[in-house]
Amino acid sequence: MNRYIDLNHISDGKLYRADDLVKAGCGDCLGCSKCCESMADTIILDPMDLYLLTANLHTSAASLMHRQIDLGVVDGIVLPHIKMADDTGRCPFLTEAGRCSIHNFRPGFCRLFPLGRYYEDRSFRYFLQVKECKRQNRSKVKVRRWIDMPDFNRYEQFIADWHYFLKDLQIPLAKKGEKWAKDTSILILNEFIFKPYNTEEDFYPQFYERLKSSSITLQADSTL
Ligand code: SF4
Ligand code: SF4
Predict the structure, then answer these.
(1) What are the Cα distances from residue 47, in Å, to 27, 31, 71?
(2) Is residue 4 predicted with pLDDT exceeding 80?
């Protein structure tokens, strides 16, 4: 997602890498579930999130639609997000006791918070959002430990590649109009979100296969 923000207003002014210590530790969020409520459509899901959700819930992306996930437009492309309950605004995966029922395979956005990503030169670093989590006396933790994804270097490369795949669409999106935007969204949804992943197999080769074929299709049909 592209957001033009002044880091000095929302962060501690520092940029972090995977092995840096950052004051993100929230004491296991005990007694607080603020960032699992009233988040509207901001918890955007990526292909890895869909892979993990469908593998661990033993379901398909289509089955999750409308109850747990929904679609929205992000920078001109339709992408999935967690669907907060219409009446309470709570995440459908939040238990009555205020705990995440999918903690071990929660989406990347949830793993990251209260960190954010600052993208630059087809890579990224992390920043600490200082106004979002009100927990006092947060503890220092290594970024990679906070996010807690296996095979972390590959995960970071995937995050950068997915981000720039979407970002590179911005120029043709601006030039080619609504029909191209709609067709591109359909291709992305079909290829990366709704087409089932083989959850018995490693995610990354499947993702990169799809990235390659989608890039070829889009290049043939645009000025990318
Ligand atoms: S606001 Fe902070 S303490 Fe509360 S749930 Fe979010 S990360 Fe945890
Ligand atoms: S998936 Fe879990 S961590 Fe993420 S918003 Fe829902 S309950 Fe909170």
Answers:
(1) 29, 31, 14
(2) no
Please, are residues 188 and 142 in contact by the beta-carbon 8 Å criterion? no
Q: Would you tell me how many other CB atoms lie within 10 Å of the CB of residue 163?
A: 18
Distance 26 CA to ligand 1 centre (A): 6
Give the whole-angstrom CA distance, residue 164 versus residue 98: 35
pTM, to two decimals: 0.94
30, 50, 53, 93: which to mutate for ligand 2, most atoms within 8 A of CB? 93
Ligand 2 probe mutation, 56, 91, 105, 112, most atoms within 8 A of CB = 91
Mean pLDDT of 104-132: 95
Query: Confidence band (pLDDT; 50, 70, 90) for 17?
Result: very high
Ligand with the closest atom to the CA of 38:
2
CA of 34 from ligand 1 middle (Å) equals: 6
CA separation for the pair 33, 30 (Å, rounded): 8
CB 22 within 8 A of CB 146: yes
